Each structure stands twice: as structure tokens, then as C-alpha cells.
Amino acid sequence: MKRDFKLPDVGEGLTEAEIVRWHVAVGDTVKVNQIVVEIETAKAVVELPSPYEGEVAAILAAEGETVDVGRVIITVDDATEEALTESLVPEEPQKREPVLVGYGVKQGPSKRRARKTHPATPAEPVAAPVSNGSAQRVAVLAKPPVRKLAKDLGVDLADVAPTGPNGSITRDDVLAAQVAPVVPLVVEEQELIPVRGVRKATAAAMVASAFTAPHVTEFLQVDVTETMNAVRRLREQPDFAGVKVSPLLLVAKALVTAMKRHPHANSTWTDEAIILKKSVNLGIAAATERGLIVPNVKDAQALSLVDLARALNDLTDRARAGKCTPAEMSGGTVTITNVGVFGIDAGTPILNPGESAILAFGQIRDMPWVVDGQIVVRKVTTLALSFDHRVIDGELGSYVLRDVGAMLEDPLRMLAWA
Fold first, then answer.
1. Do residues 375 and 391 lie in contact, with contact meaning Cβ atoms separated by under 8 Å?
2. Given this model, what pLDDT does residue 111 score?
3. If DSSP states are collapsed to H, E and C, what string results for the chain?
4. Among 221, 215, 229, which residue's Cα sits nearest to residue 345?
């Protein structure tokens, strides 16, 4: 008689395991409790014994294959028709069966508390006075919940016309006969905004990202006084005539440079492998009337500062106008979200799906700062870098954030590190 041996849960609550090595082959004879296979779970390598005695008829999972718990992995032709896990009948109801290595103790039949069932509550007759006021009573059929409702509403069941089965009074009958006026609930005026399009897609993407990638966020306060001076000087350069120059431009350049210095951060996670991206496609989170969108500048690492400024200007303008192409909305590798424009110091941004890092750029404020041992007023901002801990560990994330901060403290480092 052929017996199927299914991959068991070896007591770790596993849902799958990898077949590491078979100790038997088709045609071999096995005995009960003989080790037939090694499996690797998320915690350890476990040896599984055979619960049957006989000849191996088939091996249904290859070495290196991952199989789900409950799947048949080997079939044994049990000549004795004895299987300890299936055919042993205990002599007594509470007698325990023999223990097989890797299976744990199998208890005898369990005693479950029987669920009590109650028949449907019948409509109970209630004596009610007849309309002529005499002592004679007539039967009124109504279930207890209906009678309680009538009592709470001050409705006399004798005055209610029944419409239920067998002349019983229903809840609707009581409500229809209610004497006291219904006091309407005061409902605050509200407006329903349909969730669709960009807003719906963004919501789905953020939920998927937040509950898929293990987010870590690090914060860094930075003295950006020299960055603000550099912005002012760039605005005076002829090459930047007609181009909007803001602190975001230098933050973007610093982030792109940091990603070049630490290329492993410019990666994305898949279940099969970490994909290292050669191009830094810089996403810029843009708030629009249709919702938040994140178009990206392709190959930002190859652009000069003025070309990056033009690309950012063009991208944000078309994003707000709803003119970004599908290609510009996909393929990003890292993103900046400028929360400072809303007067916010910092936040914990959620990764754009498919990316491993996102930088939040806070508002720039005058703050007391220690310079050469003296407290002076400086331009200070807060940077917050969220990253996917499957791809970027704490050390790498810290290096990226540190480098961005260092370049904003001294923009000349962008030239040295570019």
C-alpha cells in the first residue's frame, strides 16, 4: 500500500522549507524512524525520519527545491500496511502514540466542548387589554427584542397591526406605530472626495511600500549658511539667467553625488537579487491638485549643475500642470521630498516603491550654532533619510546622509567629490 509522506511543520510554525539532501533513493528500503531527508527551515537544518516502513516508490521534491508544508515529498510502498502517523489505533482514548523525531508528541483524541445551540426564540404571546377596557385579555405575538423596542419607544403592542408570521408583531411594525416623533440625529455637513486616479494609485503604492520595505529613518541637522551664500552667487551667474536657483538645487546635487560615492545605495530589492542601478534617476516629490506625484530626472549624475537646474525646473512645472509622461513617472532610484516649503523641519518619508532611499529636506531657519567655539546665528536645516534596511544597512545609510550634510555645509566638496 502506497503511503504519502507530507512535509510536516517541525514545531517552528514554518510554512515552507528547502530540501537540503536526500538520504534515500527510489527503490531503497526504509524503516520506521530512519532518517530519509534533511530540510532547512528559516531557523535550522532538520532531519526528518520516515513514518513508514517499506520501499521508496517516488521522491517528489528535488534537492535545493523549496516546498510548502503539507506537500507530499516522498511516497513509500508500505508492504506491512503499518504507518505510525496514520494507522496506529490507541488502545485507550487518551493513550499517546510513539514520538517520531521532528514531529513532537501527538496527543490522543481531544475533548472539545460542545457548542450549545439554541433554537430560534419564538414569538411570545403577551396579554394585552382589549379596547373596551374589560378584564378580558387577548394574545399579542411578539419576540422579546420587539417587546423591548416597543417599551423603549412607548408603543402599546395592543395598538400595533401585526404583519409577521402567524400574526406576530415585527420590529418594523413597532416602528411604524411609533407615537413619539423620531428625533433626527444631527449630522455634520461633509463632502465626499472620490478616491481615484493619482490619489488612489499613490495610496496603494504607499501602503505597499510601508508594509513591505523595512523603513529606517536617520536625521541630521546641518549648517547650510554656505549653501545659501552659494545659491545667491549662482543666481548672479550668466549661465543661470532665466533659471530658477533654489537651495533644493544644491540638495539635489549633493544627494546625486552621494549616491555616486556610495553606489550600493542606488539599488532596489527583489526576492531574487539586489539590483544595482548604474544611473541615478532623481525623483522630486511634487504636490499637485491631482495628488502627490514623483517624476524623476533621468541620469541626473551626468548633468552639470545648470542642466540639473533646468531639468528640475521643467520637471516640476510640467508635474504641476499634469503633463509628465509615464516614462518620467517610472524608473526612479532615489527621491527628494521638500517638506521645508510647508514650514516643516523634518519627517519620516515613505519610500517610493522600487527605490531604496528618500531624503526629506526641511525648512531653513536662523538658529544659534557653535562656530569656532562661539555661538552665532546660522542658517540651519534638518535632513531626514529613510532607507530600505534590506538594501542599505545603518552604516551605509549614515555615510550617505553624512556626505549630503557635509556638501551642504561646504558646497566646494561637491566639486571635489563629483
1. no
2. 39
3. CEEEEECCCCCCCCCEEEEEEECCCCCCEECCCCEEEEEECCCCEEEEECCECEEEEEECCCCCCEEECCCEEEEEECCCCCECCCCCCCCCCCCCCCCECCCECCCCCCCCCCCCCCCCCCCEEEEEECCCCCCCEEEEEECHHHHHHHHHHCCCHHHCCCCCHHHEECHHHHHHCCCCCCCCCCCCCCCCCCCCHHHHHHHHHHHHHHCCCCEEEEEEEEECHHHHHHHHHHHCCHHHCCCCCCHHHHHHHHHHHHHHHCHHHCEEECCCCEEECCCCCEEECEEECCEEECCEECCHHHCCHHHHHHHHHHHHHHHHCCCCCCHHHCCCCEEEECHHHHCCCCCCCCCCCCCCEEEEECCCEEEEEEECCEEEEEEEEEEEEEEECCCCCHHHHHHHHHHHHHHHHCCHHHHHHC
4. 221
Distance CA 11, CA 104 (A): 7
* Rg of the chain, C-alpha, whole Å: 36
C-alpha distances (whole Å) from 205 to each of 10, 253, 289, 293 are 36, 27, 18, 11
What distance in Å separates the CA atoms of residue 350 and residue 337, rounded to the nearest whole number? Answer: 10
Kindly indicate the confidence band of residue 80, based on its pLDDT and cuts at 50, 70 and 90: low
Cell numbers placing 253: 546635487
Q: 317 CB contacts (<8 Å, ≥6 apart)? A: none
Of the candidates 176, 180, 164, 152, the residue with the CA atom closest to the CA atom of residue 125: 164
Convert the pLDDT of each residue in 250-263 to its tens digit.
Answer: 999 999 999 999 99
Please name which of 231, 213, 360 lies closest in space to residue 283, comparing C-alpha atoms. 360
Question: What is the spatial distance between Cα 182 and Cα 179, in angstroms, rounded to a whole number?
Answer: 9
Would you name the residues annotated as active-site residues? 389
More confidently predicted of 99 and 307: 307
Q: How far apart are CA 95 and CA 77, in angstroms?
A: 28
Nearest Cα to 226, choosing from 386, 62, 414? 414
CA atoms of 137 and 131, how far apart (whole Å): 10
As given in the structure block, the three cell numbers for residue 264 are 550600493
Q: Which long-range contacts (CB under 8 A, 24 or more apart) does 172-178 make?
A: 173/146, 174/146, 174/149, 174/150, 175/149, 178/153
